Fold each of these.
Amino acid sequence: MYRYVPNRMVVCLVMLLFSLDLLCINLSLHLATSVSFYYGWMPTLQEGIFSLPVMFILFSLIWFVSAQLFHLYREDVVGRLESMFRSTLRTAVTTLLLTGVILFLNTSVISSFKALAVLFGFLSGYLLLSRLFMTYVYTVLPRRFNWVKKVAVIGAGAHIDSVVSLFDQQQMFYQVDTISYDDDDELLSKEETVLKFKQYFEAVSKDGIHDVFLVTSPEMYQYSEDLVSAADHQCVQLNFVPSMVANITYTNKDTTQINLPIFQSRGESMSTMPNRLKKRFMDILISGCVILFILSWLVPLIGLIIKLESPGPIFFKQLRSGRNNKPFYCFKFRSMVVNNDANKTQASLGDKRITSIGNFLRKSSLDEFPQFINVFLGQMSIVGPRPHMLSHTEYYGSLINRYMVRQFVKPGITGWAQVSGYRGETKDPMLMAKRVEHDIEYMHNWSAMFDFKIICLTVINVIRGEKNAY
């Protein structure tokens, strides 16, 4: 059973809801205690069992423990308005009941009832306004700002309706494209079938869709390896949905998440939205610090030396292959004289195009530092597969099996392949194959600690010096 994560919109809603609640439930308590103190319904800070700061801590703790108990901030709950309303009501009732117990311990019964009634009024007002606001966010903003996730459902016409209906239940977060074929098409030869699906995957990829659900019969599984390979080449995540169960499952209208019985072609840990957000947070934090505290003085210094040694720009920017094979301009300090072969030919040992300052920059890896700007802009990550020139991606994509799998994630300034010795020029296709092998290993085993290990190894290699850094 596989729970399909909707998109970054749901994660953003979780973060927004959590932040609003954290701020406003404490504001509600502050207003309630101020009114209660003014009318003498609550003791001063020096009286009673619990001081005011302790009450604030207890109130927040009760709220968030109750929210955890009723899954208020879980993605599948926030993903549906009805579920979020239900969890909010249960959390609020539990919080008020337990807070009432604390008030009874802290003051008289009558005063406690009055203070609790005031707190109920302020908290109810906040929850009503905040959930009205969230309703507006759910129903208007996703379509207006195109925050929906695009997916494709492919299959025989008789089998895909039930799968599409699951996405329709959360239509505010999804845009579903369907590709339907006749049942008789499954009688085509293997070559004809694979070619047909290659055309399907190419079409959806050009339309910006990278998640495909293939509703298929058992006869189609004999082609699964070829279909996965064809999907990988287009940076498409392929999910096989057995047609037998697609038509008989998930008739419960109260479902709060999309569950599909599928065989998933790729299951990298970085494919989940929480892990991607965790990695993005660290990328922004580190790259922001590097830009502010290092590049702010390093760019003028190195830029002046580059300008004095040879005419041309300070930065060398080149189109490279990014996530989902989307090209972007990768920045480096210019280490060569301006030449027409920079976008076609890799630097090699003893390359006469490399300037004196360029040789130092390459040996010390300082030429890569402007890529922290790419990281801050969201085009790259600190750690990931190195971005290749577009010509190399096209060439090796057709030559090396699973090469395009590395394009499922953002490229990095450093990577597992680089610290494992596969850095620099790759004249031998076997060297590129080993680099791809390490990149895929990194994707399958990603963790924050794995990234930290690679960063530490990168620093050690820079200090020690690398023979392939030229």
Amino acid sequence: MGAEDSERSGLRERKKQETSLALSWAAIRLTVERGLDNVRVEDIAAEVGVSPRTFNNYFAGKGEAIAARHLERARQISVELRARPESEPLWEAITNAAMARFALEQGTGEKQPDRQWIDGVRLMVSEPALQGEFIKANAAAESELAAAIAERTGTDPTRDLYPRLVAATVGAAIAAAIGHWLTAEEPTPMAPVLRDALEQLADGMPVR
């Protein structure tokens, strides 16, 4: 493959990725606004300016589209982790990687969220119809993070417990931070909650 063909192939892949993420975000936004049962594939496709057939080329249904954004964010934490300086201690690198990804998605992550939006997200993630998709996304994300941790620590995720244990712990911390953020009495920025969760892990979960 020549340089020009490679460039065209890379451009196609980027456009496919952009379309996939746009469809996922549209699915989330409409579900938060209307409720899952009141959103059709046709509505999601129309938000992005594509046909329902195009939607079906990317996702098997609304649930998979909604979970896709969560999976991509988790995957990008692995990408960020691989890019962190080798001299950085593991837990510091993991925390910085996670914070960088959330900051890219939410501005600085310090913005005060809207109560109506939080309430809608909380209802969305509690939908029984979506639970299976979130479980699959979390499993895939955990495997990718374990691989990145294994590379950084010189371990083997197929033989050593350590990278999978760390990846599972990080996933649980992120889930706990999101859960706390969604149920806080007053709307609170996500970034400080996530940083607190990851720093508590880095400190060995000290007794309080």
Amino acid sequence: MSVSDTDLIRAWKQVLSLSRLEAGQVVTVLTGADTHPQTLRCALAAAGAMGARVNRLDLPPVNAEKSLSRDALAYLGATPLTGNPAAIAALKASDLVLDLMTLLFSPEQHEILQTGAKILLAIEPPEVLCRLVPTEADRDRVRAASRLIEDAREMRITSAAGTDLRCRLGSFPAICEYGFVDEPGRWDHWPSGFVLTWPDEGESNGRVVLDRGDILLPLKDYVTEPIELTVEKGYVTRIAGGLQADILREYMASYEDPEAYAVSHIGWGLQPRAHWSMLAHYDKEAHIGMDARAFEGNFLWSMGPNNEAGGSRTTACHIDIPMRNCSVALDGRPAVIEGVVQDEPGLARAARRKEAV
């Protein structure tokens, strides 16, 4: 169901307020060929109504001839900012960049953030944005989970389906994604609501068994039969199963990059207003699957780069896999038990309140 401009402007104003936008600050809205027109016009209206000096920077798409998918996260190579110093300068001169195009996993994004500019990515459909407007309670819950990760030296993930994966921690920080940018130099994604980190290089071992109903992104498919992945010294060395395993193997092989198989970020979803079933209701090209990444209690892990966390590994391939019914333990302490988050009841209740729109 479509949403009105009135509701989407109200949602934008809440997110911009949480992001501490002040009158007179410079907001640059970064757009591309696939930017949703309603999201754009409501972002411009909301920022302008709050007294910001608003600019729009529209850039042409890239990578279409290399990617097997139209998904914005399917090929993480060059961006429209690559070799474009004029565009980079405009974004560096901004207090807040509203990324309606997608700069994720790019060196240009890091360069902009280092100036103190904030970047908020928002590319999901307008009705998804309105349903998943972030709150301060979301931030508090995600931050509490990040502190658990910061204090831990091992994450172990198990499931009744057969998953048993151990990942050493400590080299990389815990990352909070709660949907707004309230600090200088911060990047976030609206919508979100999860916590993650990256394991130490070469220190992930075990096996992951994808069960019926787990999700493959950016393929945007529910797993229909078990897929077993063997993890050795930080890399997936074997993908076994039926047709979907064959598709995943061929898709990853198309990048011709051994770094595509490295274990990337690991963490869990904390957003009760996100829904596992969302993919069943949308055309694949209409969204990038943030409900799947954020729904409460999922174990979200990935293969691909770690440069977002300060690592040196870059690859154009990035596979996200949200899994249901997993247990996650940090140094033996349960954080998620069979898909149920084990945080403080007060934090969970606060996050479930629909304070947003």
